Amino acid sequence: MQLDERKLKILKAIIRNYLETGEPVGSRTISKFSDLNLSSATIRNEMADLEEQGFIVQPHTSAGRIPSDKGYRLYVDNMLKEQEREVSELKELLLEKEQKMDHLLKQVAKVLALNTNYTTLISTPQYCKNKLKFIQLSRVDKHQLVAVIVVEGNIIKNNILDVSDELDDETLLKLNILLNTHLNGLTLDQINLSMIAELKRQAGIHRDIVNDVIDAVAMAINADEDLEIYTSGTNNIFKYPELSDQAKASGIISTLEEKNLLTTLVKETLYDSEHSKEIQVYIGDENQIEGMRDCSVVTATYELEEGMKGTIGIVGPKRMDYEKVVGTLKTMMSQLDSLYKKKE
């Protein structure tokens, strides 16, 4: 039996509310769903029809209703159809020309926001296979060095590094030899945590300089890429009381809208080559972005072809459903990977 759109929406609202609370659902509860815009009286009439048709039942003497097996079946069948349609849309988008990539990424963010009820972000893919050609550390003054970094394509970046103590010529020479011997000719993917640890060990008391240079190299290798970040589901923030007060919500929304602050998060995910295939979870103060300290952020790296990588992220309250979020991200990464390889 097919239900009209209004009854189907009410049935979905009843089931979702019951899944969240475990309590029978009344018409007043359903009337608070903003997308329904129906009076309690209208909802009562529709619920009476749904009960008569066997989609919901009244437990004992409760004023509320709960879904029947028949109601669950209709809900699941519709949910599966929606997911199949979403995957089909993604397939069609992936088969279009590359200039449609922005449309695809926006659609991915939208699908994730709808499926999780959180806020989502996705970055355009960046090419992470450029090779480092040369590093030159030179003294500016007692407490500053300049790191000149040359990348394939003759991309040159100058970075000022702060140092606590003045470095003599011999120490600078040793650091230059150390860095160039280990890093020249490598892509960002090949500079892993174990290599960085060995560089720091050999640098000894100057390990912080090595760390700063690695960060500068990562920035230089990606400097020629135009990074775009698309977001969706920003208003989902208001569904969670702990995030919806004016100050917190304003900070989160400003961060999402300005985008430049999100670049830090995206690049942190992309540059962590050791964990680039893993899901990363930042809880509360673990977030580098001040405006997101009241949130949890879950990120993953997707890859469309070798070296072309981007970041997918989901932002929500600290009490987010981590199992569902991680599962959804893994599914999306798998779909992007398999569908793109079919295209190739």
- In CATH terms, what is the architecture of the largest domain? 2-Layer Sandwich
Question: Biggest sheet: strands, sense, closure?
Answer: 6 strands, antiparallel
Predict the CATH topology of the largest domain: Beta-Lactamase
Helix and strand content put the structural class at alpha+beta
Q: Which range does the strand content fall in?
A: 15-25%
In words, what does this structure look like?
The structure is a single chain. It is built from eleven helices and eleven strands. The chain has 344 residues and is an alpha+beta fold. It folds into three domains: 5-73, Orthogonal Bundle (Arc Repressor Mutant, subunit A); 97-126 and 227-343, GAF domain (Beta-Lactamase); 132-221, 2-Layer Sandwich (Enolase-like, domain 1). Strands 3, 4, 8, 9, 10 and 11 form a six-stranded antiparallel sheet that branches. Strands 5-6-7 form a three-stranded antiparallel sheet. The protein is elongated. The model has no long low-confidence stretch (mean pLDDT 80).
Helix and strand topology:
Layout: H1 5-21, H2 27-31, H3 40-52, E1 56-57, E2 66-67, H4 69-94, H5 101-116, E3 119-123, E4 126-127, E5 132-141, E6 144-151, E7 155-162, H6 169-183, H7 193-203, H8 207-221, E8 229-232, H9 246-258, H10 260-271, E9 280-283, E10 295-305, E11 308-317, H11 322-343
Antiparallel strand pairs: 1-2, 3-8, 3-11, 4-11, 5-6, 6-7, 9-10, 10-11
Helix pairs in contact: 1-3, 4-5, 4-11, 5-11, 6-7, 7-8
